[in-house]
Amino acid sequence: MLRRIVASVAIALALAGPVHADARIKDITVVQGIRDNQLVGYGLVIGLAGTGDSLRGAPFTDISMRSMLQRMGVGLGDLTLQSKNVAAVVTTATLPPFVSQGARLDVTVSSLGDATSLSGGTLVMTPLVAANGDTYAVAQGSVTVNGFSANGQAASVTKGVPTTGRVPNGAIVERDNGADINSIPHLTLELQNPDFGTAAKIADKINAYARKKFGKKIASELDFRSVRVIRPETIPASRLLAEIGLLRVDADVPARIVIDERNGTIVMGENVRISPVAVSHGSITIKITEDPAVSQPNPFSDGKTVVVPSTTIDVSQEGGQVAVLQGPTLESLVRGLNSMGLKPPEITSILQTIKSAGALQAELVVQ
Questions:
Q1: What pLDDT digit, counting tens, does each position of 10-55 carry?
Q2: Which of 57, 63, 188, 210 is deepest in the core (most CB within 10 A)?
Q3: Phi, psi (5° rounding) for residue 126?
């Protein structure tokens, strides 16, 4: 069934003719310097129904509880804590670019100790810091967990991951993250799929637009990954990016075959080609059968009963057919592989061997 589907898709592509990946510039590029920032924090989730950390198994939870209570003016002295309603967690969030003070972020909460579930808990005020150590947001709120866990004396049931949850809009940004983009004299567009041809097409498309609007060229490709755009003084950078982002280019697609060996998925690009090559594929099966025979001596003789070994070796080969593959089109390549009656793991092995032979005119990526 899988081979039929792959062959049908390949035939449909061949009948439809060349397919052009006409895409907007905003969908295939990102602006250099405009990116998200990762935030992380350490905190406590309280209010758990006996599913929190055991303080012996997670001593850092005990230390954190004592520290929090001391900051609130509660002195414990030598009192031993035995609560299982608290869990130490690591909180993570993503800080978008140009976010302003007071904006809210979603927070992911993950257990750090031996808690069994965070369901029903509340994250206590937790600072979220960036890689430079500065605090950019503070998180607090009820934890939402999709999974659950139920335990009995003889059985247990767990669905999902109850030790990880989210606090929707649980973090408040305390520091602005952004600069005045409109004051930047030039912008650099980075291709998500680097290619010299695509970079040149982007520069040409932007220059064609700029000549009509500004009377001059403003873009030039730096390499196969970057295109520099000089911002005219008469337009802010935000509007310039909005206008050139809607321009469409025919993005070049590399000749590439991606193989996922874990689930047998094989994806081939339209430009994959194979030079004429003969392929023989078959499996040799060797069956060895041991059938020992017992040799009895003649009556009234001094002989002994012995076991005489008897081995039968049967060699058989399945398949082994030879096919000539020549891939001027994706459809003919897939048809040639399917004609040999191969399954995805076997196709993977053949493609790797053809690549080693130098007949595969494409990049082979094995995951």
A1: 444 444 444 455 889 999 999 988 888 999 999 999 999 888 888 7
A2: 210
A3: -130, 120
Strand residues in 291-366 grouped as ranges (E) = 293-295, 306-308, 311-327, 360-361, 363-366
Of 202, 231, 251, the last residue of a domain is 251
Residues 285 and 320 in one domain: yes
Distances (CA, A) of 257 to 272, 273, 329: 7, 10, 14
CA 280 to chain centre: 35
pLDDT tens track for 117-165: 898 899 999 999 999 999 999 999 999 998 666 665 555 666 678 899 9
Write out the two tokens for 109.
């909460």
Which of 311, 315, 312 is CA-nearest to residue 285? 315
In tens, the pLDDT along 64-93 reads: 888 888 888 887 776 667 778 899 999 999
The reply to whether 168 and 225 lie within a common domain is no
* Structure-token pair, residue 166: 């989210």
Nearest to 200 by CA among 214, 219, 216, 217: 219
Does residue 171 contact residue 105 with C-beta atoms inside 8 Å? yes
Same domain, yes or no: 91 and 123: yes
Residues 6+ apart with CB under 8 A from 331: 10, 11, 13, 14
- The conformation of residue 182, written as its DSSP 8-state character, comes to G
Rounded CA gap, 367 and 361, in Å? 19
The CA-based diameter of the chain, rounded to the nearest angstrom, is 121
